[in-house]
Amino acid sequence: MDVQQAAAPQDIRNVINFLRGSKSGLKNKTGVLNGSRREYFKGKSAIKALQSDAYAKLKNVPPIDPTDDSARKLLHTMIQYTFFLGVDRGNPSGTSSSSPRHIQIMQQQAFDPDAYYVWFYDGPQWKTYLGGALLVTVILAGVMFPLWPVTLRIGVWYLSMAGFGVIGLFIALSIFRLIFYIITVVAASPGIWIFPKLFADVGFIDSFIPGWDWDIPPPKKVKKKRGEKEGVDGEKPLRKRKATGLTTMDFDAIVESGYYV
After folding, report:
1. d(C-alpha 145, C-alpha 27), whole Å
2. What is the rounded distance in angstroms from the CA atom of residue 151 to the CA atom of residue 132?
3. Residues sharing a CB contact under 8 Å with residue 60, sequence separation 6 or more, in sequence order
4. Engineering a disulfide at 177: which of 28, 62, 136, 194 sits with its beta carbon 3.0 to 4.6 angstroms away?
């Protein structure tokens, strides 16, 4: 497969790199091929990616007309370079229905929008190499810490102490606001929270706004009682008439005057 992929022209490689990137929006699934997990996709999703605006902005790629069959034809010609091959899906590999399905390479290779295709290309590897190099650099720097210059070691020590101080201050603030809330619940119900949005899903600055607030519970939803009907224009519904000794004429007079029973 490496030989076929190496023979692919640059414009085809650009298309493959686009499909393997995040900008294409191609939905990949995980399957089990010969005991190892591999990603695969549906043909319809690849056609949609090549007909997208993101692909139209690329340079040095074969042109695609969204109104015709050019996307499917291009993907069909790319099969010969074995970046992906058509597969048949089987049963789930595990006991759960959500487990990755077994996949098997088809004998006859053609591109069909309703078929599935397994990837034999993982995309550009420069990010992986860069991440590995950074990881090795950090490990070596930590191991060689005793050999660092004195001024650099002192600077790192101050930075680490500052970081621990911020974490300790945050923990102390959390404990203090909890104790203060418990005291105010007893002394001034319903209680006061200091920095009520401290643990809310907001920005860093918004976490400290406002400085304090009452712990007022949200309003409860009022359930309608059976037998009540909605009044006209949002008026209060009339309740069932109780046995009050009033006649029908008395009730009508009360309703007309604006009072309700």
Report:
1. 45
2. 28
3. 10, 11, 14
4. 194
Rank 98-102, 161-165, 239-243, 254-258 by mean pLDDT and report only the highest. 161-165
- Predicted local distance difference test score (pLDDT) of residue 247: 52
Chain centroid to CA 215: 31
Cβ(86)–Cβ(104) under 8 Å? no
Res. 242 pLDDT band, cuts 50 70 90: very low
Q: What is the largest CA-CA distance in the chain?
A: 102
Amino acid identity, residue 199? Answer: F
Q: How many helices (H) and strands (E) does the chain have?
A: 8, 7
3-class DSSP state for residue 244? Answer: coil
pTM of the model: 0.54
Q: What is the dihedral of CA 10, 14, 19, 22, to 10 degrees?
A: 150
The number of angstroms, rounded, from the C-alpha of 25 to the middle of its chain's C-alpha atoms is 14
Q: Of 238, 240, 233, 229, which Cα lies nearest the Cα of 256?
A: 238
Which DSSP category does 193 fall into? E
Count CA within 13 A, CB hemisphere, residue 213.
Answer: 12
Q: How many CB atoms within 10 Å of residue 185?
A: 13
User: Taking a C-beta distance cutoff of 8 angstroms, is the pair 260, 238 a contact?
Assistant: yes
CA distance 120 to 134: 27
Q: What is the pLDDT of residues 55-77, one digit of tens each?
A: 999 999 999 998 889 999 999 99
- CA 136 centroid distance within chain: 30
Contact indicator for 76, 86 with CB cutoff of 8 Å = no
